[in-house]
Amino acid sequence: xxxxxxxxxxxxxxxxxxxxxxAKQDLSAQLQELGLEDFELLKxxxxxxxxxxMVIAEGYPVEDHYITTPDGYILNVHRIxxxxxxxxxxxxxxxxxxxxxxxxxxxxxxAAKSLGYILADEGYDVWMGNVRGNAYSRNHTSFNPDxxxxxxxxxxxxxxxxxxxxxxxxxxxxxxxxxxxxxxxxQGTTVFYVMTSSLPEYNDKIKAHVSLAPIGFMNxxxxxxxxxxxxxxxxxxxxxxxxxxxxFLPSDGFLSMMxxxxxxxxxxxxxxxxxxxALCGFSPKQMNTTLLxxxxxxxxxxxxxxxFLHYAQEINSGKFRQYDWGTLQNIKDYxxxxxxxYDLSKITAPVYLIHSRNDWLAGEKDVERLCTGLGNCAAxxxxxxxxxxxxxxxxGIDAATLVYSKVxxxxxxx
Length: 414
Hints:
Domain Partial AB-hydrolase lipase: 52-109
Radius of gyration: 20 Å
Oligomer: single chain
CATH topology: Rossmann fold
Protein name: Lipase
Strand content: 5-15%
Order of helices and strands: HHHHEEEHEHEHEHHEHHHHEHHEHEHH
Active site: 186 (nucleophile), 359 (charge relay system), 390 (charge relay system)
Organism: Anoplophora glabripennis
CATH architecture: 3-Layer(aba) Sandwich
Signal peptide: 1-15
């Protein structure tokens, strides 16, 4: 059965994931100079350090918090209470990673270059979430993620209506604040829209929200791998359920085979084989090859297969709505044959959308539609660098100057 799915993917992949022109970029020479053996060694060493270790190594204070959701998931949240100076401005910031990612995204580039450290040095009490199913939150009070299918029966809807609200309530209780600042990347923006539209009372707990590479509607996304998943969403949904492929893991042998089968041969394949880059693409101009072993040691960080199938459904429907579980389950859950749309007009917290032209997942027209639908779209900011890609918001060389400076400025105005 797994072989069948593999052939489905390979058979419809008419173009490689990594564009051919990448081989002509300086990136190729840099990767060849590094060498595969050295790369793997550096990657293995980087993987030994978890987020708290990485923060301590940079000279910042860090705390580990474990939060149990009402449905039993145990979430590991990381806190940087202040910067190196020890001074605080009394403000609380919450950072939410994207799909296949973790809290490492917010500190991976080091001091002065990562949003977590930048905000901490500005005096913010920084909390970095990890949602159910990723490497840091792969725990449950009763389900075993390795053996129990029930652990993986969620999409990003459950993350939006359960995980993020639970974390926010915990953070506010711990800090004594009545509201906080929220910055999210990719799926970290999706779950914000789910939360504040489904639970409108949480709008009052958000001083300002900044969406980096915002994903609501996906009609105009250009990711080849996501296009493939969208075309074959229904059979893939049935087949992955049949074979028990509930977890979307980069280390899974089948997934590696699938991606390798549709990757262009050559130096670009090193990045293409990594499922996160295969999904989102990359910008050679913004790629820090020195940092690459560390990035690939921490990402992808795992997720549920249904998180991707939910996005595939969004692409096909052209709507921002809840997960399609099939007719019988939909009637049971939604009391209707029609899937409920998320009412974006209920989002009254100020939302700032920061996007880029070269983003494979957050298309310009989709971001425009999102802004139009939001109850309070405070601003839509298009980055000046036309090469900036979806992952450059966290890994890009110029992320601090092009993106994070804007986040700090926006937060300071609220």
